[in-house]
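User: Here's a structure from my thesis project, written as structure tokens. My advisor, Dr. K., wants to see whether a designed sequence matches the one we expressed. Can you design one independently, without my sequence as a hint?
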């Protein structure tokens, strides 16, 4: 399933199912202020339907503070209410640079990225 989150087509979200049953949301393109609300809405739909979700940022070309905030907010909310949401530790080099500068590894993968 391919779902465009932004009217401009800047962020594309592909939804598939991983072998362990998690819904995988693969983000392609640019994740920024223009489309972070749409991403959060999609996550809300999946949460309400009881889906376990894995967010894949390995194909993102760009992420700004709004995209980072959307990811962190989602992870924090999931931890607070027991919803199964995780971020795949495989990141595009652009996203990895941003996450490294912000020191997000320990927040997103407290047991280390290899265990996430």
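Assistant: Designed independently from the structure alone:
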């Amino acid at each position: 399933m391919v779902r465009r989150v932004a009217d401009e087509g800047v962020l594309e979200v592909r939804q598939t199912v991983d072998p362990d049953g998690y819904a995988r949301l693969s983000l392609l393109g640019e994740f920024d202020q223009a489309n972070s609300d749409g991403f959060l809405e999609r996550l809300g739909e999946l949460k309400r339907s009881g889906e376990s979700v894995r967010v894949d940022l390995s194909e993102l070309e760009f992420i700004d503070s709004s995209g980072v905030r959307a990811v962190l907010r989602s992870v924090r909310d999931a931890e607070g209410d027991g919803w199964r949401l995780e971020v795949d530790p495989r990141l595009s080099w652009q996203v990895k640079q941003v996450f490294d500068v912000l020191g997000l590894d320990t927040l997103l993968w407290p047991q280390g990225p290899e265990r996430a």
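When you compare it with your expressed construct, this may help: Residues 2-108 form a domain with the Transcription Regulator spoIIAA fold (CATH 3.30.750.24).
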